[in-house]
TrEMBL record:
It is an enzyme of class 2 (transferase). This is Transketolase. Its cofactor is thiamine diphosphate. It comes from Catenisphaera adipataccumulans. PANTHER family: TRANSKETOLASE N-TERMINAL SECTION-RELATED. One of its GO terms (molecular function) is transketolase activity. InterPro entries: THDP-binding, Transketolase_N.
Length: 272
């Protein structure tokens, strides 16, 4: 798929993420928008997952460790055809399968129920260990937030991944430098993440999370690493694509009003 096609998919993912949050008047738009390009490339170009093998253990798996960014996650799954597009506006509504945090019991393409930060990446490491023991050659991917790296459980998982030389897992960190309370560096500084992951025995890759050529190169390199895990540190902008949301901590978990929704959709070139 060429870059222009990927950009169209990612932009549609952003539009649907905004629709979901606006429809629910609840949810997390900031991180959904910052990770949209990464998740789009992961699902359309990297992972071995499709309608035919979604129910099989013989495929790649993804764990959304930063489980609150379901508006973006569900929108990617809808873009890929695993969720009906019309279900996006049922987000967080009573009776909907699209809960505020992903539930693997409701959506077949969701590989792990997540929400409590740090637990998703720990589960992903367990999946990678199981694949090694079973001789399953498929890969595990997990996406964390940089604020999530304040959790000690993240580093326990990193320690295990390195100790067991899990070259079948790729950690990804959405480094948008903002969390619900403000700047990550001011709330509880986790940087420099590259040095920390190197210290835990990881191969570290750093890339622009909004440049599809850079995204491709980062994945290609990370997947070539042998006998140790890899982590990709994505440099991103929280709220990417919506003018008044970009780089604003206040849009970590807040729904737009009608006027803001219209402006957001205008910014993204979408229909209301």
């Amino acid at each position: 798929m060429n870059v222009e096609e990927l950009k169209k998919h990612a932009n549609h993912v952003r539009q649907n993420a905004i629709r979901a949050v606006y429809s629910a008047q609840s949810g997390h738009p900031g991180g959904s928008l910052s990770s949209a390009d990464i998740l789009t490339y992961l699902y359309f170009e990297v992972m071995d997952i499709n309608a035919e093998n979604v129910g099989s253990i013989d495929r790649d798996r993804f764990v959304l460790s930063k489980g609150h960014i379901t508006p973006g996650y569900y929108s990617v799954l809808a873009e890929k055809g695993f969720i009906p597009q019309e279900d996006i506006t049922t987000f967080r509504k009573f009776g909907s399968k699209l809960q505020g945090h992903p539930n693997m019991n409701y959506i077949e393409a969701v590989d792990m129920s997540t929400g409590s930060l740090g637990q998703g990446v720990s589960t992903a490491v367990g999946m990678a260990m199981a694949n090694k023991l079973d001789g399953n050659k498929h890969h595990i991917f997990t996406l964390l937030g940089d604020g999530e790296c304040q959790e000690g459980e993240v580093w326990e998982a990193a320690m295990a991944a390195s100790h067991y030389k899990l070259d079948n897992i790729t950690f990804m960190v959405d480094c948008n430098h903002l969390q619900i309370d403000g700047e990550v560096e001011k709330v509880m500084n986790v940087y420099p993440l590259d040095k920390k992951f190197e210290g835990f025995g990881f191969e570290v890759v750093k890339a622009n999370g909004h440049d599809f050529e850079a995204i491709k190169n980062a994945f290609d390199y990370a997947l070539s690493v042998k006998r140790k895990p890899a982590v990709i540190l994505w440099n991103t902008v929280k709220g990417k694509g919506v003018s008044f949301m970009e780089d604003q901590a206040g849009w970590h978990g807040k729904a737009p009003n009608e006027e803001q929704f219209k402006q957001a959709m205008k910014d993204l070139g979408g229909d209301e």
